[in-house]
Amino acid sequence: TQAQIGVTGLAVMGANLARNLARHGHTVAVHNRSQSRTKTLVEEHGHEGSFVACETPEEFVAALERPRRVIVMVKAGAPTDAVIEEFAPLLEPGDMLVDGGNAHFLDTRRREAALRERGIHFVGAGVSGGEEGALLGPSIMPGGSKESYEALGPLLEDIAAKVDGVPCCTHIGPDGAGHFVKMVHNGIEYADMQLIAEAYDLLRQGLGLSPSQLADVFDEWNRGELSSYLIEITAEVLRQVDASTGKPLVDVIADRAEQKGTGRWTVQIALDLGVPVSGIAEAVFARSVSGHADLREAARGLPGPSGVPAGVLDESFVEDVRRALYASKIIAYAQGFDQIRAGSAEYGWEVDPGALATIWRGGCIIRAVFLDRIREAYESETPPVTLLTAPLFVEALGLAQDSWRRVVARAAEFGIPAPGFSTALAYYDSLRAERLPAALIQGQRDFFGAHTYQRTDREGSFHTLWSGDRSEIGG
Ligand code: 6PG
Question: What are the binding positions for substrate in this chain (predicted)?
Fold first, then answer.
């Protein structure tokens, strides 16, 4: 039998994608560097569909119908290059090589260009949803040529998650577009997780609620506008009791958040593109702060308020925090979508933000009811410059802002760190401001470096002779 598609790299993500394809009736060639994984997959899951187990790359390539469709699921970086080097010489013009890992989009651009020279379509595809998503329906963000999507799209859409019958997979744009949006997806994921964590911390410290009581709060929130996968799993994590100590698991887990790097890339690239993604940046830095045992140890005794005095906060604080969370979340997503639009303009990808919001409604880690609101905003007749000004979000922010301000003020007053909430509010107020103190910064720059400034009332560049008679020159 000829296989419609092949998967090489059979760690959990690869194996689950292969199983998902087989369960949808496709014959799947499977290959792994060490053959034991291939054997295990076919032994344990062979009954789920039609697999062709291949021992060598040559055998694998020969098992595929043409043009060949090969999904590579190996670690990002050098291992991906090694696999490409191994397979590319065996492929023919018109064949497709799909990288489903979390590759850096600049690597994807480089690989796509090199393989295009050889007539091979290289498709950098973001795949989100974790191990379970890969098996039961991920959100898939394929980049690469339009032509390759014609051959790959139907298969990928088949195995993707569906929302209202619409597959969570669409062609994102040329070369690195797919991996770029996946990177920003992860940046947004970091921001969302940080905001949820702050909400938890504020309620725990502010009201003295227990993790299991907080699990109930998050369950409740999951029934409203915050309804999302991340809120849902937050409740699950908070409800978990540690078997060995009998304590809530969250109290036993070391409070150092790790990262594999996609959030950091998002911020690095945002800096290069000049897009203020302060919510994502603050989330990356908050993880970094948590991991700095040395700094935290040294600073532990610094003066600050000692906890929240009894009776100051009441039940209404729960609703305040919920609204603050929703408002901050709107900011984080707005900033992420700004970055996508900036990246798309920079690289000429023509990413459709509405289509992207559509495929993030299901399958991926940030899946949420909220993404449907973003889709509506971008698909409206007058798409907003920033999501903040979409009518729906204007209303939401209007409803939330009093609560949001109270929560940030309370956090500062009681010494509870809320970097995500605070930076989101600062961004909101910065955009709203009639005048920003940036004018003063321009004055300072001109003072020490003659960097010049522009005036509000006349065209041109101006400089004040600060060390002379302080008259102004230029125009
Ligand atoms: C997804 C996840 C996935 C992975 C992240 C975790 O969309 O399925 O984002 O890609 O879980 O890489 O990132 P950190 O390890 O950096 O938190």
Answer: 102, 128-130, 185-186, 190, 260, 287, 445, 451
Per the annotation, binding residues for substrate are 102, 128-130, 185-186, 190, 260, 287, 445, 451
Rg for the chain (alpha carbons), in Å? Answer: 25
What residues does 53 pair with on adjacent strands?
30
What is the Å distance from ligand 1's center to 186 Cα? 6
Annotated binding site for NADP(+): 9-14, 32-34, 74-76, 102
354 lines ligand 1 (CB under 6 A): no
Number of CB atoms found within 10 A of residue 349's CB: 22
The ipTM value here is 0.96
Residues in the chain: 475
User: Which residue lies with its CA nearest to atom 7 of ligand 1?
Assistant: 128
- pLDDT recorded at residue 201: 98
Q: Which atom of ligand 1 is nearest to the CA of 130?
A: 8
* Residue given tokens 């005048």 in the structure block: 435
What's residue 307's pLDDT?
A: 87
Residues 332/270, Cβ–Cβ less than 8 Å? no
Q: Are 191 and 157 in contact (CB under 8 A)?
A: no
Q: Are 383 and 357 in contact (CB under 8 A)?
A: no
CB 288 less than 6 A from any atom of ligand 1: no
Report whether residue 131 contacts ligand 1, using a CB cutoff of 6 Å. Answer: no
Give the per-residue pLDDT at 140. 98
Closest-CA residue, ligand 1 atom 14, reads 259
Instruction: Look up residue 259 and give its two tokens.
Output: 């990262």
Question: Ligand 1 within 6 A of 129 CB?
Answer: yes
Q: Are 368 and 228 in contact (CB under 8 A)?
A: yes
Rounded CA separation 16/41 (Å): 9
Q: Which residues are catalytic?
A: 182, 189
| Mutation probe of ligand 1 site: the residue of 194, 365, 371 with most atoms within 8 A of C-beta | 365
Q: Mean pLDDT in each 10-residue stretch from start to end of the chain (475 residues)?
A: 95 98 98 97 98 97 98 96 96 98 97 97 98 97 97 98 98 98 98 98 97 98 97 98 98 97 97 98 98 97 93 96 98 98 98 98 96 96 96 97 98 98 98 98 98 98 98 95
